[in-house]
Design a protein that fits this description.
about 140 residues; Nuclear transport factor 2 family protein; six-stranded mixed β-sheet; NTF2-like_dom_sf; alpha+beta; Nuclear Transport Factor 2, Chain: A; about 40% helix; Cyclase_SnoaL-like
């Protein structure tokens, strides 16, 4: 039993490191870096929107945020695990000064639920944040 706990703790520590590296990839301003944390056929859905499927679309999704918020800063708030699903909690801050931007600052939080594949990459991520709050900050 204790060995199982130690193994689970080791896996959790690995996933916390993974989450921090994922955060760093977002902050790198290199969309392909973020996409590399996903399986080749990985998927990201945000707020029940149209899923980004595969690394090319994932990179395009990341690029849209990176361009809209050139000074964006993502922080990892925490990581939890339940039934082999990881929940990555984050906070996003930035100023919308990209093409067509409002010039407004945003500061909002959310989370992604990750299902990992056998290679240790994200197979499926379901992201959620308060879109009303985000839009309100953009429109100020």
């Amino acid at each position: 039993m204790a060995a199982g706990c130690k193994s689970e703790n080791s896996q959790y520590k690995k996933m916390v490191e993974f989450g921090q590296k994922y955060t760093d990839a977002w902050n790198s301003k290199q969309p392909e870096k973020m996409a590399s944390f996903y399986a080749e056929d990985g998927m990201l859905t945000v707020n029940n929107g149209i899923p980004a499927m595969g690394r090319k679309q994932l990179a395009e999704t990341a690029k849209s945020y990176m361009e809209a918020f050139p000074d964006m800063e993502l922080t990892m708030d925490s990581l939890t695990v339940e039934n082999e699903t990881y929940r990555y909690y984050w906070t996003f801050k930035g100023t919308n000064t990209g093409p067509g931007g409002t010039g407004n600052k945003v500061n909002f939080s959310g989370f992604e639920e990750w299902t990992m594949n056998k290679q240790g990459l994200i197979q499926k991520s379901v992201g959620t944040y308060d879109a009303q709050d985000y839009n309100r900050q953009l429109e100020k």
